[in-house]
């Protein structure tokens, strides 16, 4: 437990091509009710006016601007922020999102009351252009009512920006993000869960997540294939020693991910994605990562155990049915065909 009443807390904000959003993001970070902050802005060689848009915020002495010499990606930007951070706690905010003004205070108070290594919280998605609705937050009550997480932590969303972390974990375990891959939150989420001795969840939407048509999380292109790479890292990380609850949680996540990839990915990449998922399912069986089966997990498992000559046509039929039944899915496919993949 911290012996400092108001320790320094580091907030890492990676920046790349967010000229429309960086102002709102930094305003919400700078106006936190907890003020002893170190705001590390890592500018990753934007090709738009992001740097110019954030310049007015540099008058705030709590902001440290670090500029990469060449574009290196989100993982590298986050790692740069980790290396530069000097705070007792760390957290991450994506530069196109907005946070509740009480976010840091709630998390810090919770760590003190609960002696936690990690505090997780919820997000409130909003569409780009939609006004943000601030949450009504009782800081004291939220901090007191955090619920200790066990295996259920691994069932939570992987997003890095939903975690408030004691900085010692980064030093002691070497926690970093895999460079050169999308969906880098996967290994970080699992590594953190396997490393931290006490994780608590505060059930409140303290983070406002902007949904953009060009975001990686909404991608249908080749970036989706990176999920197989990061999942292989996680499977190796969990290994064979983890308890049954953790192994079941990983089995759930992997099967849900295969459903998402194979029902969303562009048709031109479908066969490659299907073949890679078949290899993944075989590895899951070898490692005994048995999920808690539901309809989707059962169906995707059956398809992936069929020969490619049978399973792939069946998968195409399933995708056609899903598109027929879901106007939102049809709209997503049209939108995906009109937008460039996110960097």
Question: Can you give me a brief rundown of this structure?
Answer:
With 343 residues, this protein is α/β, with parallel strands linked by helices.
The percent range for strand residues is 15-25%
Helicity level: 40-55%
Order of helices and strands: EHEHEHEEHEHEEHHEHHHHHH
Largest sheet: 9 strands, mixed
Q: What number is the mean pLDDT?
A: 89
Q: How would you sum up the global shape?
A: globular
Word description of this protein:
The chain is 44% helix and 16% strand. With 343 residues, it is an alpha/beta fold. Strands 1, 2, 3, 4, 5, 6, 7, 8 and 9 form a 9-stranded mixed sheet that branches. Strand 2 (37-43), helix 2 (50-54) and strand 3 form a beta-alpha-beta unit. Mean pLDDT is 89; it is low at 330-343.
Descriptors:
343 residues, alpha/beta, 13 helices, 44% helix, 16% strand, globular, disordered C terminus
Q: SSE layout and pairings?
A:
Elements: E1 9-15, H1 22-30, E2 37-43, H2 50-54, E3 63-67, H3 74-84, E4 89-92, E5 98-99, H4 103-114, E6 118-127, H5 139-144, E7 147-149, E8 163-166, H6 168-173, H7 185-195, E9 199-211, H8 226-238, H9 244-264, H10 270-286, H11 295-305, H12 308-325, H13 327-338
Parallel strand pairs: 1-2, 1-4, 2-3, 6-9
Antiparallel strand pairs: 4-8, 5-9, 6-8, 7-9
């Amino acid at each position: 437990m911290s012996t400092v009443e108001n320790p320094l807390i580091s907030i890492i904000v990676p920046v790349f091509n967010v000229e429309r959003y960086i102002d709102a993001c930094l305003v919400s970070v700078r106006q936190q009710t907890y003020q002893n902050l170190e705001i590390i802005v890592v500018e990753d060689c934007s090709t738009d006016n992001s740097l110019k848009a954030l310049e007015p915020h540099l008058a705030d002495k709590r902001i440290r601007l670090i500029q990469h010499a060449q574009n290196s990606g989100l993982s590298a930007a986050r790692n740069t922020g980790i290396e530069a951070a000097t705070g007792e706690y760390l957290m991450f905010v994506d530069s196109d999102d907005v946070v509740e003004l009480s976010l840091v205070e709630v998390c810090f108070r919770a760590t003190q009351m609960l002696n936690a290594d990690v505090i997780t919280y919820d997000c409130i998605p909003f569409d780009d252009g939609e006004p943000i609705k601030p949450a009504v937050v009782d800081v004291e009550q939220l901090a007191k009512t955090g619920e200790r997480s066990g295996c259920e932590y691994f069932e939570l969303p992987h997003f890095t920006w939903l975690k408030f972390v004691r900085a010692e974990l980064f030093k002691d375990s070497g926690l970093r993000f895999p460079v050169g891959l999308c969906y880098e939150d996967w290994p970080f989420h699992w590594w953190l869960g396997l490393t931290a001795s006490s994780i608590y969840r505060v059930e409140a939407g303290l983070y406002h997540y902007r949904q953009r048509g060009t975001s990686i999380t909404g991608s249908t292109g080749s970036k989706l294939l990176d999920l197989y790479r990061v999942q292989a890292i996680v499977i190796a990380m969990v290994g064979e020693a983890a308890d049954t609850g953790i192994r079941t949680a990983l089995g759930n996540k992997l099967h849900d991910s295969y459903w998402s990839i194979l029902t969303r990915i562009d048709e031109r990449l479908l066969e490659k994605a299907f073949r890679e998922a078949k290899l993944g399912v075989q590895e899951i069986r070898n490692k005994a990562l048995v999920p808690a089966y539901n309809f989707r997990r059962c169906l995707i498992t059956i398809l992936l155990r069929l020969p490619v000559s049978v399973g792939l046509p069946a998968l195409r039929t399933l995708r056609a049915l899903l598109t027929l039944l879901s106007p939102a899915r049809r709209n997503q496919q049209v939108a995906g065909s009109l937008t460039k993949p996110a960097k």
